[in-house]
Amino acid sequence: MDALNNETLIRPFWEGAARGQLLTCFCTLCRTDIWYPKEHCPVCAGAISWRPLNGRASLLSWTVVRRQINGQFDVPYMPAIVIPEDAPEVHLVTCLSLPEGVSPYCDMPLNVRFSELTPLQGKPFVAPVFTA
Amino acid sequence: MAQSIRQLKSRVGRFDWGHSVEMDDVNSEIAIIGIGETSYTGPSDRAAKAMALEAVENAIEDAGLKPRDIDGLMVSAGIAEQLCPDDFRAYFGTENDIWFSREGGAMIWGATCTHTASLAIRAGLARNIVNVFAVDWASARKSGRGTPGDWHANEPMKAGYEVPYGWFPQPLYFATFAHRHMHEFGTTAEQLAEVPLTFRRHANTHSGAVMRDKIMTMESYLERPMLTDPFRVEDCCLISDGAGAFVMCNAEQAQDRPHVPVIVEGVGRGCIEGSPYISQQKRVTATPQTFSAPWALAMADREVQDIDVLAVYDCFSMTALMQIEDMGFCDKGQGGEFVQNDRLYYKRTRRDGGIPCNTHGGLLSHAYVLGIAHIIELVRQLRGDAQNQVADARVAAYAGFTADEAATLILRRGL
């Protein structure tokens, strides 16, 4: 039962990413954005669905992982939390992919890009990342 | 006269990104009468249960009691192997019934166990309750058995949305929040450094501290490479093996014990909205201490100015700094400036405008036993027995933390 929930609440996001869409879970009745996704709307118990976002976001904050801590990726890499312009209640955990010479700063405007991430274990996968 | 929940609520107020748990007034009902611990180390191949029993044995003796006097046992669920009543009875050769709670141990429960124990004593379920916490993460990590980050990586939403991006474990969470604090309030690396530096100084004059022989200066700290910006290794707590325990009983019965009793005046617990997902916190520059400290202080009928000695859950330098702000020792955002100029050093007392903090060295330099040693240190301070003794310590506070929750404990020296 839990696995099914996770497939319902997690898989659509990653399937959207593979299609080049940044999605958020939302309530079909009261239009509240629901993040992290839940089976039913916590505000009105309405049915959930997914809606595409415009891809613009601002940087809430970030870190630069410089030494191997979790074995997920080669270091250095830059995980971050961004707030979508058109879903301000949503905090998306993501990675930054910034051009050479561009440093991150809080509230920096960003745009989504769909890139293949290559974890140290398991298969590469397409993910929404954010860039300047 | 005990305050009602309604009275406490009206004193505390409401928050827009979390809440205080409504805890009954237990002011002055329960006392800590005995403390016990093991040595604290890196990998030692000691088993968690064996260390727990050693700490419990020491605490019972310190309380002037015998094992057969103990009729309550509290542990933390889900971290290492913790004791159960059968373990206690087998080790000590006792037979009596033991009231058992898994809402004890360390972290936030180091504080709230006093509240839970008070209610058990009120209900006649137990009279002498031992709270214990043991951890063998140093040995576990060395042998590949497990780490503090495991729970986070296995939580379904985190596994689905955070782990794929490598946003785990805890050092990355709080390094991310630290950058925001630096952005919003101008907190600098040199200011942040004061937290690990001061706690290291405390450890250097504390015989039980793991980092007792390791000197750290501002220069040596700043030269250290970044682990995950803006944290260096020194901004992150140790990984340790060790155990601590304390015995509690009704405050009236506490007067006949060998040591000055330490009376519980206030307990608070707070939780973020959207728990356990700290990535979704409306404010990432603050902690749930925002919700727990006011409740504990209201129950204790105290102001922060009354606190003579403090122990905060310093899993990271910035989380300690934020909790100090959130408890009200300074304004939100002023923590960087606040922790400079020996503010937290044990010799700078409240009278001199200081607030001695983590006088044993904390999780950063004493040992990572998730707060149980913080409470033991505060008991020593209030007894007048501490190695880095704060002059005239009468009232103490412990700030416990688990990321999405926090708890606060206010203690006073009994007569």
Characterise the protein shown here:
- The complex is a heterodimer of chains A (132) and B (415).
- Chain A is mainly beta.
- Chain A contains 2 helices and 7 strands.
- By secondary structure, chain B is of the alpha+beta class.
- Chain B has a domain of 126 residues: 3-Layer(aba) Sandwich (Peroxisomal Thiolase, Chain A, domain 1), CATH 3.40.47.10.
- Helix content of chain B is 34%, strand content 17%.
- Chain B is built from 15 helices and 12 strands.
- In chain B, the strands form 2 sheets. In chain B, strands 1, 2, 3, 4, 5, 8, 9, 10, 11 and 12 form a 10-stranded mixed beta sheet that branches. In chain B, strands 6-7 form a two-stranded antiparallel sheet.
- Chain B is globular.
- The chains are: A mainly beta (132), B alpha+beta (415).
- Chains A and B meet through helix 1, strand 3, strand 4 and strand 5 of A and helix 7, helix 8 and strand 6 of B.
SSE map:
The complex is a heterodimer of chains A (132) and B (415).
Chain A: H1 2-9, H2 11-18, E1 23-27, E2 48-52, E3 56-62, E4 79-84, E5 92-95, E6 109-117, E7 125-131
Antiparallel strand pairs in A: 1-2, 3-4, 3-6, 4-5, 6-7
Chain B: H1 5-12, E1 18-20, E2 30-37, H2 48-62, E3 72-74, H3 85-92, E4 99-101, H4 109-122, E5 128-136, H5 137-142, H6 150-154, H7 156-161, H8 170-185, H9 189-204, H10 218-223, E6 226-228, E7 231-232, E8 241-250, E9 262-272, H11 289-300, E10 309-312, H12 317-326, H13 335-338, H14 362-365, H15 372-383, E11 395-401, E12 405-413
Parallel strand pairs in B: 3-4, 3-5, 10-11
Antiparallel strand pairs in B: 1-9, 2-8, 2-9, 5-8, 6-7, 9-12, 11-12
What's the gist of this structure?
The complex is a heterodimer of chains A (132) and B (415). With 132 residues, chain A is mostly beta strands. Chain A is 12% helix and 33% strand.
